Amino acid sequence: MNADVIVVGAGAAGLAAASALTASGAKVLVLERKPYVGGRAYSYEHPALGEVVDCQHVLLGCCTNLVHLLQQASASDAVRWYDELTFLETNGNVSSICPGSLPAPMHASLAFLKAPMLSVADKAGIARGLLEFMQGYPQDDNESAATWLKRTGQTERAIRHFWEPVLVGALNDTFANCSTKYAGQVFHESFLKSAKGGRLGIPRVPLGAMYGAVADAVTARGCKIELRASVEAMAYRDGKWSVHTGDNEHRAPAVVLALPFEQVQALLPQLPAGAARTTLTEKLTHFVHAPITTVHLWWDRAITDLDHAVLLDTGIQWIFNKSKIREKTGEHYVELVISASAGELHQGRDEIVESALRELALFFPRVLEAKLLKSGVLKEARATFSVLPGLDQYRPEARTAWPGLYLAGDWTRTGWPSTMESGVRSGYLAAEAVAGRKFLQPDLPAAGLMRWLTR
Q1: pTM of the model
Q2: CA gap 247, 244 in Å, rounded
Q3: What is the pLDDT of residue 417?
Q4: Is the CB of residue 188 less than 8 Å from the CB of residue 182?
Q5: Domains annotated on the chain, with CATH
């Protein structure tokens, strides 16, 4: 098939590129090796459970490009928004952080000051740390978040009850493996800049349905999406790229590789040899993966009335009450998220479930009375890439040294860490490089006093 642009990959990056390019009138072909869209943000029917499961992904109000992509697909209703974060301790303490009547950056300060999960000394240290991100966040990414926590004198309890649940949940890695730049970005954009930026968006449908709506929208505009189409070879000749999937050859003057970095590594030998290939090959050696593990539990009755919560001082970062979020009656389904779960990769399913149940009962006594009907564990060894200190210099731009070849993916130079928002931004940036017009959406404007404080 001949097209104006071939997009390889139907994850957030590839669908965003296809959406922007089809909107500009380009004839786009999307090739996806899997039998479904969504990339790493996917869902599937678990063969043993008979349930559609996914690895829980969330977004924030500051994710302007992902919000825009869903709006363009008339899929905004796929996300349910929350203004309150609930932190639970094993002693029964509940801390709720939500915006009040004060202007940004003080919009959540009253709730923060009342939070029993932190002492006065903890809160003073946190306030001191947040002051560093008041005007913005560092543009240099060489300092680790671990060094920053020590430098700003954060208490052990503040780290356990505030910095760790937020940063590990957002960046999916240890403090040593995350740069202060992206830690600062998380807090500047979601905690300080505006109340809207910190809103928590949780998909109310499986991820496959959410991104399926985007795929349907771009297909309705003339884009063709081929699933189970794995790219086996590609070459550049006569001013066009030739992309082979099995017995099929597709040709186009432009190709967007909207793939995870390890899949781009696998395709590099197919590209023309030379300095450009050597340079990109060397850059990709600096990227590493960070895993996420999710535990899926179905009960005969509800174990909590909360929609979601942060669980402190345990191996579980979050609980999501999927039945309530999806407004499903007749089932009691919760999903537990263990971020940066390198240890769990080497544990068996039963060991992970038993540990999760013990920890869950510390917060929700109803667990001891409820009957567990079925359970599953989903390990994502390559869930995200680590925003290692100093990594920015190796994140490539969308435009490559090869004519008509572009890169997209959350790992490219988007200015964001490994998130769905970064993936969508990369797709829009690649589309901009192809079409020569603007697609990237502006960041949320600063609100309240932050309009004068933000750089």
Answers
A1: 0.97
A2: 7
A3: 98
A4: no
A5: 5-56+205-286+389-435 (3.50.50.60), 84-198 (no CATH), 289-385 (3.90.660.10)
